Amino acid sequence: MGLKVQPGVIGCTIRPVITGRTRSLEEIIYDTAQMALADAGLTIDDIDGICVASNDQFDGRAISVMMASGSVGGVDRDILSTPSAGEHAFILGALRVATGQFRTQLIVSWSPTEVSSMPEAQRLGTDPYFHRALPLDELSAHALQASALEHALPGARRAAEAVAAKNRAQGGARPEEGTSRWPLTPSMTSQPVTGAVALVLASPDFIAERGMTKIAWLQGMGWATEAGFLGDRDLSTAPALEAAARQAYAMAGVTDPAHAFGVAEITDATPYSELLAYEALGLCRRDEWESRTADGSFRVGGRLPVNPSGGVLTWNPVFCTGMIRIAEVAQQVRGRAGAHQIQGVKRGLAHAGSGFAMQYQSAIVFGSEVRT
Amino acid sequence: MSGDRVGIVGIGQSAFRARRDDANYPELVREAVVLAMADAKMDFDAIEGVVYSLSPDAMIGIGNAERLGVDAVGGRNKPFLRINTGGATGISAVAAAYYHVASGMFDVVLTAGADKVGECGDSQSVLNKIWDPSYERPLPLGTINMLAMSGVRYMQQTGMTEVDMARVTVKNRRHASLNPNAHLRKVVTIDDVLESRIISWPIKLLDCCPQSTGGAALVLASEKYIRDNHLDAVWITGVAHAAETYWMGDRMGNNPTAEHAGAHALGRSFEKSYRMAGITDPMKQVHVAELYAPFSNTEFHSIDAARIGGAIGDSVPRLRDGEFDIGGRIPVNPSGGTLCTNAIAVTAMARVAETALQVWGRAGAHQVAGAKLGIASGNGGDHQIFGTMVIEA
Amino acid sequence: MELLGRQEVWSITYDHALGETASSFYTRIRDEAAIYGRRSAGNGRVMVPPRSFSDETLLPTEDWVKVGPGGKIEAFTMVYESFKNLPPPPYAFGYVLLDGADTALGGFFKGVDLSDPAAAAEKLKIGTRIMTKFAAERKGEMLDFWFEVDSPAR
Fold this sequence. Notes:
The structure holds three protein chains of three kinds. By secondary structure, chain A is of the alpha/beta class. In chain A, 35% of the residues lie in helices and 16% in strands. Chain A contains 13 helices and nine strands. The longest helix of chain A has 16 residues, at 25-40. Chain B has a nine-stranded mixed sheet. A two-stranded antiparallel sheet of chain B has the order 5-6. In chain B, helix 4 (89-102) packs across helix 15. The radius of gyration of chain B is 19 Å and the shape is globular.
């Protein structure tokens, strides 16, 4: 099992926070797509397929790909859209390049804050049969997961506090805290912001033809899903992420994940999400969470820098945070991560998680070499 | 591509109805999946990934309702993602499943979904929200009047009449009467259509699709897996999408690239699918077509775009002459089509499923004799995003 | 067995940023009772309503162009069916190519007797000249204006 053609990331733009009202959402998406194309040194004429991801309830559009299609160059192009998770657009685009039937794909995801209540928009994602009457939004689901972890592992809270402090320090920019939802404190969450992200993928022959350098090659990719009802899950574990990691590592030939990567970006919707991901991704056993977070193993400068970007705890454009993690690692491998660049990254790991208590889980491995 | 193709190995479809009070949303999905798995003679363990087919959440009243469908499709701890391209969703989901296999990543992938449009009390006001919040929503736009305006322009450009539109309904209802899964199966006359009440002129009640409830599922597999396991299959040999402008007003005025009377991007998508399948003369090479047409008038521009009815507008007299009837030159929508069954999330998947059944020779009473090569299409957005496929025995 | 149901209503409020281009379009409607389009770079098409970029050329639009108030009908329909949260029928609306524009603008057609659909369709047929009418009190929105068929006397 492996991809017929190995895609590489050749262009990228990450906009973790967009403020002001001078641009409509449609215009923000246009700007974002144009920036990614410019970063790749391409024009839309070079793009033969597009994959976008967005959430209709966040966007306030009944089928938001319609509004976005023109913005991303969809007119007269092959465009597909996924609303399940921002990161799923990346997966779909990578699969399309891997078929050999497309040489390039433009991948775009976004998350506005135009809805009067994000919790209310998320609550519509509960089923009307059993759960709609509960005050269940994504943050509440994350809180349930946090409390399940604290129950399963007494030291989890101290480790979570250390992770939150690490990511906030690495992000630097944002002192503003999130919302409290027991046992999550405001410093363990972050307020939603408007953001957008775009990537350009290409096939090896396209890359060779254009003589492109600074490529983040897709070496491994896995994704999996937890059950729909929270009550059917053991929230203190992440079996779907374990399954996703197995897929990605098998494809990438990674046998010792704890020592395989120069950088990782993990979707820290809360620090508990990051801790669970350490375990499921094989980076650190849970009985070592407390010691490893205390000794700085996952800080910039430590054994494996995790979230040098500052993660979701710094900027939280809710729907596209997972895609941003993927883009951040691609930029690290390309040596284009800017002020938070980790020097000499040969291989990086991105974790994208989304939904109620991280129902959707993905693991992506990028490397600077064509083949693993 | 020989040796490297992607095949359809299992098909499941509900008997579509107005309402199903006996089954909730995930149970409907499950129903279609069980049928498809039984048809493929496969166990759930064989499924390596799932593509979920669901169009607007608001239509079903559950945000990201695919998350409730995870267990219905056996997706727990498996690769799973959802596709939404509006009305095209069903064919886009099959295309996404196709890419899962064609990429080399998986051998067996399931795609499935369901809809309960009958439970949505406000489908046209939900659909008003597909348009731009400030420029277009203040108008009473809905999908019916959008395509009524397409019909008005098509009338002006080709001479299509209300009677010609009625003939499409008469044909498709006759076809649906042979298909036990179709929702509207009552045979009607031209006068029945003309005498039905006007919804949005020139579209009358019997020119409209119903709001249907039901599910659909397909199992796709790699050619190698199909050979190794001695499975029976039909093959997806062409697949493409194309989009045109979101702005309906840009499809009018001075020399628009995409004309609102027609289906410009549908034509572009068919061009790509045909090229991939090596089809050079669709008039001669296509044996059967399942074309997404939710209103009678839109079947004509779909036939035009698929280039199976001659020059633009020739589809009108050709339909009158019976060319697109079962038994005619190229039967169009032998299942009764979208006009007789529209469970939005899976309507375009049903086009693929029905085309596959036809070239497989398993379509039952509405079988087109000798069909070996068929085409399917789906239209999404405000007549904006189109998916097409070529399926061969 | 007894089969139960449950009524659920979705009600969410959005505050959509219109951006500079649409904001300017609406303030001009409100303050000047005039409709402006944007000329597209690359192909010179005057887009009405105005967009800040062309989805065909993907280039930004360049300048404002005043269009109308006269124009011709590009598409119309008369709606006779009642839909929830949409106006009470019957009504006529459609798209108009305003003089000086290259793309069509949506709006209601007023002042047409809709009691005989065939006669109304003839009255609104594609190509018919119209005039844009503005409300005396304008809020800066699409419903500040509508279209009326030009009377033969004019």
